[in-house]
Amino acid sequence: MPRIIWDETFSVNEKEIDEQHQKWISIINELHDSLIQGKNLTNITGKSLKSMADYGEFHFRFEEAYMEKQGYEDLENHKIEHEKFREMIKKYVRDEEDGKLILNTEVMKVLMDWLTNHILITDKKYSSPARS
Q1: d(CA 120, CA 17)
Q2: Which of 12, 39, 50, 52 has the fewest Cβ atoms nearer than 10 Å?
Q3: Would you say 118 and 81 are in contact if contact means Cβ atoms under 8 Å apart?
Q4: Which of 111, 117, 120, 116 is nearest to 35 (CA)?
Q5: Contact, 107 vs 1, CB < 8 A?
Q6: How many Å apart are CA 116 and CA 32, to the nearest integer?
Q7: Quick one: CATH architecture of 11-125?
Q8: Quick one: how many helices (H) and strands (E) in the chain?
């Protein structure tokens, strides 16, 4: 499973949101690299999941405020997708804390697929045309 590599196809043509997406991708890539390198994931998994949860919360608040300001018509459905991610990450964090979650390629695939699909499909719906 390859890392997520940022390129312009991920851009929503809003500098601050693009930078936030890049930061979030880097958090997932750090976790991915730790898994691939076979590092002891006991502390890394919990820390990374909490980082994803915290950064996701920051990003979702910012993005939702941006969409509201822009008058984005599908904001409520977008918020529902954000909430589903919050619940998924909360469950992963709880499971990790309880010793029930072992980071593996399946968990990484879920996280990576969610983020890439969310940016490339859902976030692109509010994306403005590229600025020249």
Answers
A1: 13
A2: 39
A3: yes
A4: 111
A5: no
A6: 14
A7: Up-down Bundle (1.20)
A8: 4, 0
